[in-house]
Write a structure and sequence with these properties.
- The chain is an alpha+beta fold.
- The protein has 2 helices and 5 strands.
Amino acid sequence: MAHIYPQDFEYGIINSSDLSKVEFDDGIYPTSPKDLRYSLDGSQFVIKWDEHHTPHCIEDGELVPVSILSWADCHALMQTPEWTEPLPPIE
């Protein structure tokens, strides 16, 4: 079995209004809408897929990501105030 690393995926930032266009049975992770990671304001979520298999809904243009990111870029985005609550100050 091949190892799967975070770097082996492409990451898509999707507008929440496009949730119904996501084909979760076509190699998209997470595999269920209930497991999605949303931005703090709920306007976007992130999905990922194997870099060697673009999901049909994206390939055919039905679902257009706001952006497609590498693991490093997605990781950096998840650290921004739009995606992560700031830590409380240490007293």
